[in-house]
Amino acid sequence: MAEEKDTIGRDEPLNEEAPTPQTAGDAADAAPAADAPARAGKFDRLTQDEGGVRKLTGMYKNWFLDYASYVILERAVPHVEDGLKPVQRRILHAMKVVDDGRYNKVANIVGQTMQYHPHGDASIKDALVQLGQKDLLIDCQGNWGNILTGDEAAAGRYIEARLSKFASEVVFNKKTTEWMLSYDGRKEEPVTLPIKFPLLLAQGSDGIAVGLASKILPHNFLELINACIAHLEGREFQLYPDFPTGGMADVSRYNDGLRGGAVKVRAKISKIDKRTLAITEIPYTTTTESIKDSIIKANDKGKIKIRKVDDNTADKVEIIIQVSPDESSDKTIDALYAFTDCEVSIAPNACVIWEEKPHFLGVSEILRRSAEHTKWLLGRELEIRLGELNEAWHAASLERIFIENKLYQLIEGCKSREEAYAAVDKGLEPFKKRLRREVTLSDVQRLTELKFIRISRYDSDKADNEIRQIEEDIKATQYDLDHLTEYAVAYYERIRDKYGKGKERRTELREFDNIEATKVAVTNAKLYVDRAEGFFGIGKSMKDAEFVCDCSDIDDVIVFTKDGRYVITKVSDKAFFEKGIYYIGVFKRNDERTIYNVLYRDGKNGPIMMKRCAIKAITRDKEYDITKGTPKSEILYMSVNPNGEAEVLKVYFKPRPRLKKVIVDLDFSTLAIKGRQSQGNLFSRYGIHKIVLKERGTSTLGGQNVWFDEDVRRLNADGRGKLLGEFKGDDRIIVWTSKNQYYITGYDLGQHFPDETVRVSRYEPDRVYSVCYYDRSQQFYYMKRFTAEMSDKMQFFLDEDGQADLVAVTERTGAKLEITYKGAHASRPADEVDVDEFVGVKSHRAKGKRLTTYEVATLRFIEPELPPEPEPSDDDGGDDGSDDAPSGGSGASGGEKAGSGNGASGGADNRAFDGSNGDAADRGTIDAAALSGGDSASSAASAISDRSASAPASAAAENPATPGVAAGTAASAQDRPAGADKPAAKDAAAAKASGAKKTPARPDGLPRTGTTAGGVEFEIERARGDVDEVIDPEQLNLF
């Protein structure tokens, strides 16, 4: 048989001089011999016999090798050729032995398998149930358990099984099977089964051996066959897992199933309504019971908030979750993925047995070897078939010669068999040249044993037809052998067409977005702080301290001291930072919109500095300074603004000689938002007596750019996917689905979209949608125009009964519809319909207007060309710190000039509100004389406000990225409409090109009314502290 295999070109072992052991026992026996020289002397004392007693310590090495080899080769790791472990192979062989087409009791199959498998019946039954649950090789009857719920199968005496038709055709062939003796020598069992299909990849496999493990994920039946065909035809292919439980999988790190890869699998969760979620598919390796338990456990720990969870699973998964009234369903979905078994990560590790050794092979290589092995098996079957046909032709030809030439008469008078055989052989001599091989003694014996009744009824015509048919079969078989690749491809196509129905992919492949647990965790704890002693935490021992806010037990907190040092750390039951905690709050990593407005004294008697910054990402538990780091610095004022608000402060200086202007306004909106390491701008060199909150701030950040990533079906602000536009306030998006539905929703980045989503765009209330559709009930084409209704509920814009098929849609004004015809009207020229004039704008529920009664070939909207949209500006302003300035914040150049005339340098020339020399008008500053020599304190304050207002005007001409600066502006940030503080880039560039000069201060030094410019209105969320509230800088803490 080995010689016959060589004729097909099967791969031989790479090292022919040292043949690989064929069994685990051979491998174990060979191992001691290989290292005998190294063991000599070293282990003599442990292994020598002492009075017929061998020490156990000396046996450990050999015993462990035997055990490890046995577990790897005979128990845990599948073989690459047939994809089966030994117990699975023996089960299938035993089922084939007792197979008669009827069901057999599982207990009977287990008993039959025990003739080949030297282990307990329980392990055999468990392996048989797992094979049956894969629904490929075994036809099951009875209660075989449920892979969805985890229910176990009934006892072996109750359930029955038989081989499936697929297994009977693909798995077995005695003529191509290599056999060996069973463990007790009484039976023969296959070394490997001649499976002509990548069974290992279709079913998957996992096992733990000694020193290694194997985990191969299941793949799709149809995709495997298509990949085999692609390999045989020399085309590229890709394989990704497909799980029987469905769900969604992210295979971006699959790594071809090799070590180091990972596959994330998620349950499919849909929203029934705002307060009800439904899990309809679960991740592989989980059950509905385990998912339910994990949900309850997460709820008990406070990770999620749900009211009730019900498991209604039967044939299909159905877990109903009732969300708490105060929780968002979208946030709950993310929390389920983050804290429960609704998302699991699987680490593949494709290890297989090849040439009696374990090898780590990728799934692509496993499939290639399976395809080549299948091709070899098919070629082996064709060779056997060709040999059988040649034998049949030889036998039929001999029989025809023997009967038609009456050679049987030569037997008459022969006294012995040998004499009769010799007479017949001599009579065949003239005809041997017609034959294809030599006539053997067995051929002659078969001729002499023909019955006379057969000879008397011999039909020459029928015999000729049979020989002719055999010759055609030989020719066809030889053709298949000569074109073995095409034959193998046809074989795969045949089993795909025959058994592929209902085996479509169940797991949806999708890229997952990263869910940050801190963003979706519910507030299950309360944060407390003891400012004087420096302790903070969420434990019971802190409940007598000052309450700060609600938080999660996995949140990070940021803690500031009075001298400007701060640290970010994980929240705990109780922790110590430093006595005199100034501020503590929950920290959100990579948050670009939370802005810190700070006024601090640099050193004990140093100048007063002002700054605005964002703290996005720093090292946890590392100490930083929000000041310059000068010893004995002190924070005089600080506010934390979640949406970049900029307030106005009234600052009272300490009285001193010649200082008559003791009250000034500080508007933070005139400062640029910079990195956390920026030193800030100089506010004053004089000491501050007290600070009053004069005016609550509005946001100085622009709208938020939002993108839609079609791969993960999520909104994001990171630039992934299609840009929907800049959103703020009550802006909305419209979502279209493949079920001819739409709904209007907000632009919350955490929301989930239906699986049927086909398009997401910005919602414009006055936008008109023109739709062409085909009405199957009336068999006509219609067109309708409508505006979308503001509703967060699904709205059908076509027939709810499914009788309408969407053909084309446009949202452009002035579009035309081109109609071409076919059939009896094919010669009719194409028509162009003016969409805006053809039908009026009505409700989306309207039927519309019929387009034509002729037979339509195509419908196509011809849309007018639009000018290219300008790309969104990426100018985030200058920055001298480690963090980038948030998008849409105050530009660095304009903000710095408004506060100090420093430009983008951020502290190199900070002279705002001090007595330095220079062009005060240009820098928006006031000298010492203005502070001390004015008519009154109010006039000096007005002078400062006036010149501070003129500086942004000049900055706007120089820096178009600076929002909220305009020449001669006198309105406050609250008086300016949203977006009015964003000059066009081209206007600023034109002003700069034309040599526009900065607006000078009034020569008489008299003030104009007004204070600041800058800011875009957003929802205000501020800490406590009322307008005009007097704040003592010694006890300053707005939080």
UniProtKB/TrEMBL annotation:
Record's signal peptide: none
Q: Domain Topo IIA-type catalytic: where?
A: 77-527
Q: Where in the sequence does UniProt note compositional bias of the Gly residues kind?
A: 888-906
Query: What is catalysed by this protein?
Result: ATP-dependent breakage, passage and rejoining of double-stranded DNA
Q: Which residues form a coiled coil?
A: none
What Gene Ontology molecular-function terms does this entry list? ATP binding; DNA binding; DNA topoisomerase type II (double strand cut, ATP-hydrolyzing) activity
Q: Which GO terms describe its cellular component?
A: cytoplasm; DNA topoisomerase type II (double strand cut, ATP-hydrolyzing) complex
Q: Which InterPro entries match?
A: Topo_IIA-like_dom_sf, Topo_IIA_A/C_ab, Topo_IIA_A_a_sf, Topo_IIA_dom_A, Type_II_DNA_Topoisomerases
Give the record's keywords alphabetically: DNA-binding, Isomerase, Topoisomerase
- For bias type Basic and acidic residues, the affected ranges are 1-13
Q: Where is the composition biased (Low complexity)?
A: 18-40, 928-973, 980-998
* Bias (Acidic residues) ranges: 866-883
Keyword match Transcription regulation = no
**Domain of life of the organism encoding this protein:** Bacteria
Oxidoreductase as a keyword of this entry, yes or no, is no
Name the family. Answer: Belongs to the type II topoisomerase GyrA/ParC subunit family.
In its UniProt entry, what is this protein called? DNA gyrase/topoisomerase IV subunit A
User: Which organism does this sequence originate in?
Assistant: Alistipes onderdonkii
